[in-house]
Amino acid sequence: MINRLYTHFEEGLLNLLITSMTVLVFVEVIARFFFNTGFLWIQELTLTLSAWFVLFGMSYGVKVGAHIGVDAFVTKLPKQGRKIAALMATTICIGYCLMFLKGSWDYLSKMHEIGIPMEDIDFPHLLINQLDPDFAWEALRIDIEEPAVPLWLSQSILLFGFGLLLFRFIELFIAIARNKTLGFTLADEAKESMQLAQEISSNNHKDDKS
């Protein structure tokens, strides 16, 4: 039940992010080409949302098997060999995530310490006016007089994204060790393309008959 609800949350958030990016880019294009103007904050917000989409989505990709990989060698191994190779691969991926988590923590800590703000995105004054000035700066690095969104907050997805990715790889490692799966589930673009081509051909054939 909880896993299903979290899956819906993941899919909903990813859909929200990609939809927001699409709408923002559409508004920016219309503003530039038809009204000869633009919004600097849209560009910065779109880049931020794209980073959230990618870094949050990479753990979801591991979960549903959307990542692309090369398994031509692994598939030739016996079952036990495939298991050992998969355990080694997931161990490397776990180490990769741990290194990036450490680097992300150091980077965000430095951004918080310095208090670097985003260039064009500010918090609403109605919200900021509810905060104590000392708390806003010491805890959040928000200047009440110029309430720009702090860079550490907008880039905090580094911790969330790699934290979730680490969780997925640990989950996969345990599943492989318990013989619940043979290894990574990878996207098969060739197979998907053939299925799509067959569906299109079938639909065209139905249209010709009608």
UniProtKB/TrEMBL annotation:
It is found in: Cell inner membrane. Its main location: membrane. GO terms for biological process: C4-dicarboxylate transport. InterPro entries: DctQ, TRAP_DctQ. Residues 21-110 form the Tripartite ATP-independent periplasmic transporters DctQ component domain. It is a multi-pass membrane protein. GO terms for molecular function: transmembrane transporter activity. Keywords: Cell inner membrane, Cell membrane, Membrane, Transmembrane, Transmembrane helix, Transport. GO terms for cellular component: plasma membrane. PANTHER family: 2,3-DIKETO-L-GULONATE TRAP TRANSPORTER SMALL PERMEASE PROTEIN YIAM. Belongs to the TRAP transporter small permease family. The complex comprises the extracytoplasmic solute receptor protein and the two transmembrane proteins. Part of the tripartite ATP-independent periplasmic (TRAP) transport system. This is TRAP transporter small permease protein.
